[in-house]
User: Fold this.
Amino acid sequence: MSHGPLGIHLSVGQKYDDAVAEAKALGITCCQIFTHNPRGWQFAPLDERAVKKFREDLMRIGVNPVASHCNYLINLGTNDPEIRSKSIECLKQEFVYAAAFGCQYFVLHVGKHKEQTMEQGIKNVAAGINAAKKEIVKSDVILLLETVAGQGTEIGRDFNDLGKIFPLLDKELNGKVGVCVDTCHIFQAGYDIRTPEKTAEAVERMEKAFGVDKVKFIHLNDALKEFDSHVDRHQHIGQGFIGLAGFKAFLNHPRIKPIPKILETPVDEERGYAENLAAVRKLQQ
Ligand SMILES: [Zn+2]
Ligand SMILES: [Zn+2]
Assistant:
């Protein structure tokens, strides 16, 4: 079995041609984008023609699938009525934009339960997704719940907590919701992947919690902090606490191999995406 598509989080802004040129130069075969400013609730007006051309250009150079990543403000887990209603509106809009950009996936940070219990937070998340079901069902975009490192009251550190969301979703959403696994986050959450045996164990725990078939997209990031420290800080592939042996084990697990993967590694004086892509390709057997 061959490896699935490999790419990066592609920085887009309004500079579509530059983004396509970067994708081509790096030789990537999938990517993740923000369809709007991730630090704001506002969506700039959609230039449908430019967006359509951008997607066609990516397709032409072999970049497929494309995932959209949520903004950083969405929180469906909280009971705060203002944040909740803004988050639900934002989620609906994210689907309109992701569909316009021709994305197959939309990656969601499910949120924080804040002052509520985890159980209440999980219910809130499911209710929030259900509230956006019309927009989700109308689009061809699959919603992916992202695994988290577990900073503060983040929901999704335990695979079982993500798993508990699925049975609470309305039946119209059957097959429309999956999972995005982030290697740094799961490692920080306490799922060791540093050897083939540990990787197999982590994959088995995914299988039990929600089913590996639901994992449609993977973020490949090494971890800046040590195992199980719940800190979401990314490092270059092989230079963090997961290390080259860990990535070798993870990338070559038969269930993980075919899933599309992107990097969200730092871009600094030491390395950019080209070097981290090369590191991953070298480990893929
Ligand atoms: Zn994310
Ligand atoms: Zn992260």
Q: What stands out?
A: The two ends are 10 Å apart (CA to CA). The mean pLDDT is 97. Residues 150 and 157 are 5 Å apart (CA to CA).
